[in-house]
Amino acid sequence: MNTSLESALQQHRCHPVILAELQFGPALIVDLSPSSEIWGKVNAGHDFSAEIKRQVAEIGAVLEIGRYAEQRMIYQDTDSFSDHQSRTLHIGIDLGIPAGNPVFSPLDGEIFGFADHHQQGDYGPTIILRHQLEGHTFHTLYGHLAKSSLTSLDIGQQIKQGEAFATIGHTDENGGWATHLHFQIIKNMDRYQNDYPGVVDPKEANFYLDNCPDPNWILGRNDLA
């Protein structure tokens, strides 16, 4: 009997996607939903990114986590979403750490696609890996990388589990966001090669949440289970 992708990943013991001391260290789990208390602390001189940094310092966190399947309204003022106002459901997990930190492959895989989606509000430099595990073929997407991560890559290039293949990008190269990694699992890429939606219309939630399951299947943080 074939195991589910979730079971296969949990049994495999994936390598951390970022440095283990960050991935499993003390974290601030950020709530960016419309009802979040964070919006009461935001003003013209203190945006939500600054408030997140304040809260991180207050609790001594080493990681900021942006939640999977969260409704957000932070994208609509960006160029990338100007024609997609209905896309508000975040279907990856954000791992907020400083620029320059390495990104590791959680499993053996190969380069499926890569590009610099440089429009304001988009992914910036992005890499997608293809994996095969116990009869399952699936992909992992890494957004908001450094531009240097895209040099010397080839489609089909083999990436070993635990290999550092990218670094976190600065705000001026990552689509204009606070420094972080957008990490996403994608089962079927359909027509996409070097891109895939990371925020979708909630009306399409059933499809996208099935095709892009919880990235914590790989990350393995107990506080996100």
TrEMBL record:
Pfam family name, one: Peptidase_M23
GO molecular function, one term: metalloendopeptidase activity
Gene3D superfamilies cross-referenced by the UniProt entry: Glucose Permease (Domain IIA)
Domain M23ase beta-sheet core residues, every copy: 89-190
InterPro entries membership: Cell_wall_metabolism_enzyme, Dup_hybrid_motif, M23ase_b-sheet_dom
CDD domains documented for this protein: M23_peptidase
Coiled-coil parts of chain: none
Identification of the protein by name: Peptidase M23
Source organism per UniProt: Vibrio casei
